[in-house]
Amino acid sequence: MRLDDQASRALHQLEGTGLTRSEAIRLALVETAARHRGEQALATEAAKLEADEDDRAEMLATARIMESLRAPG
Q: What is the pTM of this model?
């Protein structure tokens, strides 16, 4: 594995917490994969809501109500 300057600094910072090089790399990989899974799940949920016509109608109705309550600018 080749690290650029930014990745080398980040690895050094993690090693400074007491982690070994292997532990730091393993932690970074696991946490990054988990974050990507979470982002993908969120994107999937957003797409599902976007495709739900009833939900879209409710969002638009709520937006109209909120706009009507806004003070004149």
A: 0.58
